[in-house]
Amino acid sequence: MKIISQTLLKWHAEHGRHDLPWQNTQDAYRIWISEIMLQQTQVATVIPYYQKFMSSFPTVIDLAKADNDDVMHHWTGLGYYARARNLHKAAKQIAEQHKGIFPTHFDDVFALPGIGKSTAGAILAFSTSQRHPILDGNVKRVLARFYEVEGWYGKKEVEKKLWELADANTPSKNVATYTQAIMDFGATLCSRSKPNCQACPLQPNCAAFKNERVKELPHGKPKTNKPTKQTFMLLVKNANDEFLLQQNPPSGIWGGLWCPAQVETLEPNHAVGGLNVETLKTLPIFKHTFSHYHLEITPVLCRVIGDAQVVAESNQVWYKSQSDKALGLAAPVKKLMELYS
After folding, report:
1. pLDDT of 323
2. With helix as H, strand as E and coil as C, how does the chain read?
3. What pLDDT is recorded for position 171?
4. Sign of dihedral through CA atoms 145, 147, 152, 153?
5. Predicted local distance difference test score (pLDDT) of residue 259
6. Backbone phi, then psi, for 166, in 5-degree steps?
7. What is the value of pTM for the model shown?
8. What is the pLDDT of residues 81-110, one digit of tens each?
9. Residue 88 contacts by C-beta under 8 Å, 6 or more apart in sequence?
């Protein structure tokens, strides 16, 4: 087996990313936040969110003590909101079980909400130089191409093979640098859609390049047609041009976030919490895609019949899109409010 670590370490010294806001630190808390934010999200998108998040919650204890709405507000627009909910839960767990100090044993880190095997390994590699292989999306792609691994890595046998390769290539020294190197390499040079094979130092030994399969590998998830669901979103406004929002349950789609009321069937009048509202006008359909289905949102402008006060409903609030009040909002909701304010 050809080992790629030394080649990637040399490449990273010259071409890797060295000045990202979460680099050049061994603070496990800062590293943890960045690793969670970077899941399913590009670096350029993460940077401003990370900087604002760390400014507001500079320590684990600050995050543990924070109000849930404040945490979700800082995540608004970043997507995959379960990440934020799990961060908050994990911070509380660290405060209660580890005296506010981020754990340094793998099993303790792995036991925290929202942290998988690869993320736990990356955090400990960066913060303590412990040797743990990682297997995020970038690493899977590099290994699948270099070793010409067949099959979709969502299958257990393929994932097992990739973990074995990841472990075999992780050096005993310079673990933190190697971990950053292979992540950077996959993100910038061995990218999914535009790999730069001509500049690749692994090219002479890359099986996918040799056999002209770079674009084919790694194999993607077998395609299935995503179902499309429809909902009517009631944009109820008061005289102050504020929208009536309700907080979703803590789990599920947009869990813990604030949204306008949604109904499956549109009627002339609806009961929204303690209010009766009249539908006025349907607006153009707004489409949003989740991992498992497409959602077609039909916004409906509404007005309150009678006194426009929220009565006895603790999960309701009148809210302006320009408000300074910290609420967690799903990106489509934020956009709709901005469009129809």
Report:
1. 76
2. CCCCHHHHHHHHHHHCCCCCCCCCCCCHHHHHHHHHHCCCCCHHHHHHHHHHHHHHCCCHHHHHHCCHHHHHHHHCCCCCCHHHHHHHHHHHHHHHHCCCCCCCCHHHHHCCCCCCHHHHHHHHHHHHCCCCCCCCHHHHHHHHHHCCCCCECCCHHHHHHHHHHHHHHCCCCCHHHHHHHHHHHHHHCCCCCCCCHHHCCCHHHCHHHHCCCCCCCCECCCCCCCCEEEEEEEEEECCCCCEEEEECCCCCCCCCCEECEEECCCCCEEEECCEEEEEEEECCCEEEECCCCEEEEEEEEEEECCCCCCCCCCCEEEECCCCCCCCCECHHHHHHHHHCC
3. 96
4. negative
5. 94
6. -60, -45
7. 0.88
8. 999 999 999 999 999 999 999 999 999 999
9. 63, 64, 66, 68, 71
Cα–Cα distance, 256 to 242 (Å, whole number): 20
Mean pLDDT of 268-276: 88
Q: Residue 246: beta bridge partners?
A: 259, 316
Set out the domains of the chain in order of their start, with CATH numbers.
5-210 (1.10.340.30), 228-339 (3.90.79.10)
In degrees and rounded to multiples of 5, residue 49 shows phi and psi of: -65, -45
158: its two tokens: 């393929």
Q: Which residues are catalytic?
A: 35
* Tens of pLDDT, residues 60-78: 999 999 999 999 999 999 9
Q: Does position 1 have pLDDT exceeding 80, yes or no?
A: no
**Is residue 146 predicted with pLDDT exceeding 90?**
yes
Residue type, 208: A
Residue 322 pLDDT grade (very low, low, confident, very high; cuts 50, 70, 90)? confident
- C-alpha–C-alpha distance, residues 307 and 238, integer Å: 10
CA 107/CA 218 separation, integer angstroms: 30
How far apart are the C-alpha atoms of 32 and 50, rounded to whole Å?
11
Q: Please report, as a single letter, which amino acid is at residue 94.
A: I
- Which tens digit of pLDDT belongs to each residue from 157-194? 999 999 999 999 999 999 999 999 999 999 999 999 99
